[in-house]
Amino acid sequence: MQKAAQSIVAFIIGIFGVSAGKIIGITFISMIPIIELRGSIPVGFVMGLPWYASLVCSIIGNMLPVPVILLFVVKVFEFMKKHNILTKFVNKMEQKAMNRSEKVSKGEFWGLMLFVAIPLPGTGAWTGALIAALLKMNRRDSFLSILLGVTIAGTIITLGTYGVLGFIFK
């Protein structure tokens, strides 16, 4: 098992070079709810990664949880409520998502895309996927809409971080 892990690490380093750890770190940071790519792209800048590496890894990492959320969150929430597991938390998350769903439900695909594209806390891929799942929107369309929104948000954050901060600190 340890040799397999070492082989995977060696493979990743072979592809990405010395920046492999940074790239993996950025990818994982962008998977964290609330932080998402709004936090991972500036971290990539501070770590000295090129803008395109930060952007691509952040988009990939931010999108990895989306299919899981779209497919399973409603069933997980139902199970948790049925068995009285963190019921207040589940109700709070559902209420928070439904409060924000007004903007999304009107335009569905474009509404969801715009909601996710706005680079503000609480408007990212996690919340967008939760809203889409709770509204029982088409999963494929929701995924594509969220991907487009994440790409737009990532581009905005990248331009702000690498453009403005790059100009100031170089």
TrEMBL record:
<dbReference type="Pfam" id="PF06695">
    <property type="entry name" value="Sm_multidrug_ex"/>
</dbReference>
<feature type="transmembrane region" description="Helical">
    <location>
        <begin position="146"/>
        <end position="169"/>
    </location>
</feature>
<feature type="transmembrane region" description="Helical">
    <location>
        <begin position="109"/>
        <end position="134"/>
    </location>
</feature>
<feature type="transmembrane region" description="Helical">
    <location>
        <begin position="7"/>
        <end position="31"/>
    </location>
</feature>
<dbReference type="InterPro" id="IPR009577">
    <property type="entry name" value="Sm_multidrug_ex"/>
</dbReference>
<keyword id="KW-0472">Membrane</keyword>
<protein>
    <submittedName>
        <fullName>Small multi-drug export</fullName>
    </submittedName>
</protein>
<keyword id="KW-0812">Transmembrane</keyword>
<keyword id="KW-1133">Transmembrane helix</keyword>
<feature type="transmembrane region" description="Helical">
    <location>
        <begin position="51"/>
        <end position="74"/>
    </location>
</feature>
